[in-house]
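Lab intake sheet, docking and co-folding queue.

SAMPLE TYPE: protein with bound small molecule
LIGAND NAME: S-adenosylmethionine
LIGAND FORMAT: SMILES
REQUESTED OUTPUT: full 3D complex as structure tokens
PRIORITY: normal
SUBMITTED BY: R.K., bench team

The fields below were copied directly from the construct record.
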Amino acid sequence: MIEHNEAAFADLMAKITRDSGFRCASYKDKCLRRRIALRMRSRDLHSFAEYSGLLDLDPREYPKLLRALTINVTKFFRNWETYNAISQKVIPELWGAGDERIAVWSAGCSSGEEPYSLGVLFHQHAESCGQIGKLARVEILGTDIDDDCLGSAQRGLYGEASFSDTPAAMREKYFPQVAGLRSVIPAVKQLATFAIGDLLHGDPPATRFDLIICRNVIIYFDREAQDKLFAELHGSLREGGILVLGKVETLLGAARDLFRPISSRERIFRKA
Ligand SMILES: C[S@@+](CC[C@H](N)C(=O)[O-])C[C@H]1O[C@@H](n2cnc3c(N)ncnc32)[C@H](O)[C@@H]1O
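RESULT FIELD (auto-filled):
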């Protein structure tokens, strides 16, 4: 059993934030407790003070803890129906709006599966319009707080498990096998760039985006941080720009007035 010592828990949160920059105070408490308890159990520790001591003594523990706290699970075309809706309702509109650059932001992109999935949809659309030569106007920025994940995103090499939601024909065409892994084809890979970024701290990218996809990230933030982030995402979209959230995420409070639904079911919204 893990102790119920609130003061020791608060000290541990403060220590993690001080040492690593991970802003514990803005994440949902229950989620933090569950993740920390998992790490403590794996080290057979039952008090927060002991675990805090271990973080100082064992340099291998911090990366493991941060990995547990950031929750990096993702895959290509996660929730296929959402990508289907993006492909039908969003990409044709953005592509048809002129010859200008199309700026896309995948906020909390983990190891890159989400931005590359969008890249594939743009590639498919450009091909179907006979305009593959214009694909370079698509610029997809992927940001995440986790440096290791961004390294994987930049490599663009993935195991088979990442493709469990990807139709086989798409997988074969866009992710050919290379030495036991699958590699994103260059025409899609070159659409994406990656940068470190904390959605809870610091300025958002300077660009005004046509499309922001921020899925399965906001759900881990507390209400105050969610409100602040929705307002920032609104500010980062151009007039009429589009926001896509995760399947179990929703706009709350004041954020409801900032966007109007394009597809409530697939959590696709337009800047109001
Ligand atoms: C569950 S993954 C979601 C990945 C992808 N968006 C998807 O839906 O498949 C959550 C990602 O959010 C990132 N994350 C958590 N807190 C963050 C923060 N404060 N700023 C930026 N990224 C954050 C994590 O590192 C992780 O890669």
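REVIEWER NOTE: The mean pLDDT is 96.
SIGN-OFF: pending second check by T.M.
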